[in-house]
């Protein structure tokens, strides 16, 4: 069998709130609880097991490769939900998306402060793209 990434534990301040936020934004389902975990399963079978932590939570980054159509849905949910977005992980381009590798990408935070990213082209898939480094304003987007 080839090596496949199967699951990870996502520490959160409130597993219900964080799992439901991610599932709602990405258009996924929250599964049945299993002990301290509340699962959200992606299309390729990777499970994010949300767990409420009683201590400080180190901030993590979770990136999701999506289709162009799914990106449109995600972006619409972020705008409608007034979730602040940005084109980069450092917050230099609030209210915008990036066009890296000829695709589109957006960054946003979950309720526990984890950095989330949705993007349509894998990093480095088109290093010669004229769109690398280009950002676009998103009408109606909320900024921090």
Structure description:
The chain is of the alpha/beta class. 17% of the residues lie in helices and 26% in strands. The termini are far apart.
Unreliable spans are none
- The topology string of helices and strands comes to EHEEEHEEEE
Largest sheet: 3 strands, mixed
Structural class designation: alpha/beta
- Distance between termini? 45 Å
**Spatial shape:** globular
Number of strands: 8
- Name the average pLDDT: 96
What is the overall number of helices? 2
How large, in whole angstroms, is the Cα Rg?
16 Å
Going across the major beta sheet, what is the strand order? 1-3-2
What is the share of helical residues?
A: 10-25%
Topology of this protein?
Blueprint: E1 7-12, H1 15-26, E2 38-41, E3 47-52, E4 61-65, H2 68-80, E5 96-98, E6 105-109, E7 115-119, E8 135-137
Parallel strand pairs: 1-3, 4-7
Antiparallel strand pairs: 2-3, 5-8, 6-7
Brief rundown of the structure:
Helix content is 17%, strand content 26%. With 144 residues, it is an alpha/beta fold. The strands form three sheets. A three-stranded mixed beta sheet has the order 1-3-2, covered by helices on one side. The chain has a three-stranded mixed beta sheet with strand order 4-7-6, with helices on one face. The chain has a two-stranded antiparallel ribbon with strand order 5-8.
Keywords:
alpha/beta; 144 residues; 8 strands
């Amino acid at each position: 069998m080839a090596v496949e990434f199967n699951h990870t534990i996502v520490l959160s301040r409130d597993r219900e709130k964080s799992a439901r936020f991610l599932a709602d934004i990405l258009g996924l389902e929250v599964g049945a609880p299993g002990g301290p975990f509340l699962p959200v399963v992606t299309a390729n079978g990777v499970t994010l097991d949300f767990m409420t932590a009683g201590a400080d939570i180190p901030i993590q980054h979770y990136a999701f490769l999506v289709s162009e159509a799914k990106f449109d849905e995600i972006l619409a949910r972020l705008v409608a939900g007034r979730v602040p977005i940005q084109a980069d992980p450092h917050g230099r381009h609030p209210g915008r998306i990036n066009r890296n590798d000829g695709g589109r990408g957006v960054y946003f935070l979950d309720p526990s402060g984890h950095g989330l990213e949705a993007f349509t082209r894998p990093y480095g898939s088109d290093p010669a793209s004229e769109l690398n480094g280009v950002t676009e304003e998103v009408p109606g987007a909320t900024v921090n």
